[in-house]
Each structure stands twice: as C-alpha cells, then as structure tokens.
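quick one before i forget lol
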Amino acid sequence: MGFDELFLAALEARKKAYAPYSGFAVGAALRASGGRVFTGCNVENAAYGVSMCAERVAVGKAVSEGFRDFSELVVVADSERVPAPCGSCRQVLAEFNEGITIHMANLKGKRVTRVLRELLPESFSLESAHRRYGV
C-alpha cells in the first residue's frame, strides 16, 4: 500500500469525523509494521480539551491491537494549507518513531511530506527522561 492507498484510507476515515464544534473534519491513516493500516478521525467534545485528534485515534487503535512500530502517516483535511499534526500528536508519534514519515495533504491536491523529527526536534522521550530525571 503506497501513499495513494493511505490517502484514500485517510479520506474514508475523515468521513466519520465528529466535528460539530469546529466543522474541521480530519482523517488519518497510520501504517504499522507488516503493512497493517490503522485509521482515525477527530472526535470533538463540548469540553474541548478532551477532544481527540485523528492521528492519536489511529495510534490508540494500533497500540490497542499490539502494534508499536509505525513507518508512515497520512493526515488529510479540507483546508487551504496542508494540515499538520498538532504538538500533542507529534509528541505521541515520537514516542514510537521519531523517524516516521508524515504526509500532510488537503483535498485540493496539495501535499507536504516531512519526517517527524523535522516537525518536532528534540522531542521528549523515554531516553531523555532517563538522562534528565533518572527514571
């Protein structure tokens, strides 16, 4: 499954988004080890802080199925600019692979690809926690 298939999976996930507050539906498709794909959509809540981003939904689904090795993520939304993962999503993804390839795409055909460590340099990690705090 290449980018096109991941993009289509993210588009399908986007259709399931629950975004009554922002009206901004986001879909994500995450490729795990062995090629398995997990999708996610944003799920908003009136208490906005407990809303879930599409990327974190996909990661949660994958981890709950026993997958922790991720290589590629597509995020898609209907926006002028390509939708980049928020800081919280970047940190969650970094927990599993700072080298993951992230494709950010909109419905107008714009696409930007970055490696996570470009989007989140010097992320907080288990290794850095050991160094900083001795945990």
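fyi Residues 70 and 97 are 7 Å apart (CA to CA).
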